[in-house]
Amino acid sequence: MPDPLSARLKQLIVETLRLEDIEPEAIPDNEPLVGGGLSLDSIDALELVVRLEREFGLKISSSEEARVALSSVAALTSFVRERGDPAKLPA
Amino acid sequence: MAVPAVRIAACGCLPPLGDAAATHAALLRGERALRPVPVRGREGGDPVPLALVADRALDETMPPAWLPTLAELWRRVPGDGWGSPRRPVFVTGSNFGVGGLYALRRNGDREFARWGAPPTCTEELRQALGWGRDVSILSHACVSAHLGLLEATRLLAAGIADEVLVFSFDFLSPFVAGGFHALKILNSDFPAPFRERATGAIGLGDGAAFAVLTRDRGEWRLEDQTLYNEMHHFTANRPDGSGFDACLGGLGPAARGRRLWYKGHGTGTLEAGRMEVAAVGRAFPEAPITGWKGSLGHTLGSCGLVELALAVAAIRAGWAPGAIGTGDPMGPRVATTAFATAAYDGVICASNAFGGAHAAFLLAHA
Q1: Residue of B199, B233, B234 with shortest CB distance to A62
Q2: What is the pLDDT of residues B8-32, one digit of tens each?
Q3: pLDDT in tens for each of the 91 residues of chain A?
Q4: Chain B: residue whose CA lies nearest to A53
Q5: Chain B 260-289, CB below 8 Å of chain A: which residues?
Q6: What local confidence, expressed as pLDDT, does residue A35 receive?
Q7: B234: which chain A residues are within 8 Å (Cβ-Cβ)?
Q8: B349 with B150: CB under 8 angstroms?
Q9: Which residues in chain B touch residue A49, judged by CB atoms under 8 angstroms apart?
Q10: Structure ipTM
Q11: Nearest residue on chain A to B354, judged by CA atoms?
């Protein structure tokens, strides 16, 4: 049973970045998001950060923090679970 | 290609702490022009460190509230006939009146469009300041002013112009501040260029400056200039720092045998700061490194010319201000306090820009 938050984040990545040829569940949990197999760049990261802040009511305060949060889906899941508004997280 | 030496007949700047002499004195005192300002101006948002010229809010106005600053700067430019074929003007900057486009979107007032784009902004400025038609726009993000200096040098070397006015400005707006804030490099922390710490942060500042370049008249000389474009990435430098090396290496012949100090770009981001310090250590291991964006913020496309005027003020006064806000520096050559310039033959002033664009010049007494 996949983690609902992890699954939601993968879906959000595909939607936000319009990754038309990629199924959300095909995104690995532990590979780098930026500079990895998805070929995301810093502008993609910017779009993702804006979307994450809106969607989960969290705040990323520095580029270093963004880098840690976006290091992998697993890291992003932990970050959102820790920092996100509990009311906005999937049950 | 070697760039011929060129003289500076006059230069000046008007950042928020006053003219070059006043700003230099304030930097020596360790003053900071940066203040916390809501990133979206009157619409609020996170407080971020911005340095705005006096009596100006971040929000765009019509006419632009920064226009009097440019008019005041223009009054300090010597000579006449600017904007004529033998005395052309290069207007350089990275944002021009782009804040006006954001204001247009917010309030629908089409008057804002007049200042919104580089050509319209420059034409408004040309008419307001009474320049002739020989006015060109050069924009290459945060090395814009360097590009203006270099192209002016080429015109002079080719004998196409007698003197060239390089006029540079960048004024902040919610649009510009919001962009850097979205990138998370402009946040609630104050910048500490060349300082080792857990997270980096920049500040942004209004900036306006000029230089009159000539072939053979003037107290100061640009001994050499260099521009290098990595073409590596939209925003990032090559991780090995080789872009910095390539740029500084271009100054080798002119720098050989000189005792130099180094005025760095140093915005407060960590990676670029470390790369710059390391590259200076390789190219000019004896040079003390300083930078003033910890006080003035990053004045974007105008920074090369603003900091040129401040470097001139520093050499005139005999003291170079240290890097503001920088305890725990990234290396032993980073100067955290003022140092005497008498022991040096010149200064290297460097700027960097998005896209891995690097620029530097070597400034010395003529």
Answers
A1: B199
A2: 999 999 999 999 999 999 999 999 9
A3: 789 999 999 999 999 999 988 999 999 999 888 877 787 887 888 889 999 999 999 999 898 899 899 999 999 999 999 999 999 999 7
A4: B182
A5: 269-270
A6: 76
A7: 41-43
A8: no
A9: 182, 184
A10: 0.76
A11: A42
How far off is chain B from A7, nearest CA to CA, in Å?
Answer: 25
Beta-bridged to residue B48, according to DSSP, are: B37
In the structure encoding, which two tokens stand for residue B118, read together? Answer: 């580089």
State pLDDT tens for residues B332-341.
999 999 999 9
Considering the entire predicted model, what is its pTM? 0.92
pLDDT, tens digit (0-9, with 9 covering 90-100), for B247-293: 999 998 899 999 999 999 999 999 999 999 999 999 999 999 999 99
- Look up residue B113 and give its two tokens: 């469009």
Distance from CA of A2 to the nearest CA of B (A): 31
Whole-angstrom distance, CA of residue B100 vs CA of residue B121: 10
Q: Say whether residue B239 is in contact with chain A using an 8 A CB cutoff.
A: no
List the single residue in B198, B199, B236 with the smallest CB-CB distance to A42: B236
> Residue A51: enclosing H or E segment and its boundaries?
helix A42-56
